[in-house]
């Protein structure tokens, strides 16, 4: 089933060229089946790239998806035009009285800062608190996962000596419905300067779904299945790490060549070995949300209260 997008949304034409169908608003309103409503809190600098990456993944569901985009007004967005933000993004004040089937909180390039020193931290805390009552499920990505683990579970960041950067194997620790169809060992992109203090994980609150002996836990899920914490970047394009590496080189950073990524000395050939798992994860998530969420969105707070 298609995603409903405004007719002039920039990502729409790109997705249509990839045979990802985005339905027009007028036609969508004539359908009787209730679409899933998702909210995307996009903290990445290049918001359009991230929009395309995530819309590409959620488009594979047979369900119609309505997506709202959320901005934090306490932060000045320097890499996205104000016109794009004002036209397509909502503030928290505009959505705080609404409910959503799912929320995605992206990463952000602020890992080296203490959480409380991030200029939009208090506003993000408001959103994360609101998400516990007004959404059926939340996916947190990279720094967004670290922020969620810190705020909800008191798990601190651990600073690395060098950027964790490349494609890493991860092994499933437990069987979980969101990872149906996954291989026991699967690959996925990592790009971060920090990890988490695993000694602070309380088993009654969190489960480590996937981990690697070298880099530690990579995927965690709350005991009530409401919050999914992805420390990596399943949404990355084939060339995302390459572009990031070249950008770091231009900035004079000492970022090493991403591990398990380039297949040639010229740094030109890359084989995507995570795309299938990325689509499978988001497909499983949307299917799971569809089965758990109430038909009437206003009933989500009551459902969450019963789960507490």
Tell me briefly what this model is.
With 308 residues, the protein is an alpha/beta fold.
Summing up helix and strand content along with how strands pair, one would put the structural category as: alpha/beta
Radius of gyration: 19 Å
Largest sheet: 12 strands, mixed
Please tally the helical runs, counting DSSP H or I stretches of 4 or more residues. 10
Which CATH architecture is right?
3-Layer(aba) Sandwich
Q: Give the integer mean of the pLDDT values.
A: 92
Order of helices and strands: EHEHEHEHEHEHEHEEEEEHHH
Site (Important for acyl-CoA specificity): 111
Keywords: Acyltransferase, Amino-acid biosynthesis, Cytoplasm, Methionine biosynthesis, Transferase
Site (Important for substrate specificity): 191
Subcellular location: Cytoplasm
Model description:
There is one protein chain. By secondary structure, the protein is an alpha/beta fold. The chain has a single domain, classed as 3-Layer(aba) Sandwich (Rossmann fold), CATH 3.40.50.880. The protein has 10 helices and 12 strands. The chain has helices at residues 10-17, 25-28, 47-58, 82-88, 92-95, 121-134, 143-153, 240-250, 275-292, 300-307; strands at 3-4, 22-23, 36-41, 65-70, 89-90, 100-105, 135-141, 157-172, 185-196, 206-212, 216-222, 227-230. Strands 1, 2, 3, 4, 5, 6, 7, 8, 9, 10, 11 and 12 form a 12-stranded mixed beta sheet that branches. Helix 3 (47-58) links the parallel strand 3 (36-41) and strand 4.
Characteristics of this structure?
308 residues; alpha/beta; Rossmann fold; 12-stranded mixed sheet; globular; acyltransferase; amino-acid biosynthesis
């Amino acid at each position: 089933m298609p995603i409903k997008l405004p007719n002039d949304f920039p990502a729409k034409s790109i997705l249509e060229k990839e045979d990802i169908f985005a339905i027009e608003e007028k036609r969508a309103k004539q359908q009787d089946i209730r679409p899933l409503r998702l909210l995307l809190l996009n903290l990445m600098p290049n918001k359009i790239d991230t929009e395309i990456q995530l819309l590409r993944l959620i488009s594979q569901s047979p369900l119609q998806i309505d997506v709202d985009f959320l901005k934090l007004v306490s932060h000045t967005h320097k890499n996205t035009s104000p016109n794009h933000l004002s036209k397509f993004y909502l503030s928290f004040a505009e959505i705080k009285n609404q409910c959503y089937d799912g929320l995605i909180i992206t990463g952000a390039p602020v890992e080296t800062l203490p959480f409380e020193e991030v200029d939009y931290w208090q506003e993000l805390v408001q959103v994360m608190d609101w998400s516990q009552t007004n959404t059926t499920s939340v996916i947190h990505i990279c720094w967004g996962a670290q922020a969620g683990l810190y705020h909800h579970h008191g798990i601190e960041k651990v600073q690395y000596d060098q950027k964790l950067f490349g494609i890493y194997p991860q092994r499933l620790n437990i069987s979980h419905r969101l990872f149906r169809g996954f291989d026991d060992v699967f690959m996925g992109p990592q790009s971060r300067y920090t990890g988490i203090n695993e000694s602070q994980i309380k088993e009654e609150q969190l489960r480590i779904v996937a981990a690697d002996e070298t880099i530690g836990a990579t995927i965690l899920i709350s005991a009530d299945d409401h919050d999914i914490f992805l420390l990596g970047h399943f949404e990355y394009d084939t060339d995302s790490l390459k572009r990031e590496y070249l950008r770091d080189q231009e900035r004079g950073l000492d970022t090493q060549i991403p591990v398990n990524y380039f297949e040639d000395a010229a740094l030109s050939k890359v084989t995507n070995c995570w795309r299938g798992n990325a689509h499978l994860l988001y497909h499983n998530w949307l299917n799971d949300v569809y089965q758990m969420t109430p038909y009437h969105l206003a009933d989500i707070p009551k459902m969450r209260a019963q789960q507490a």
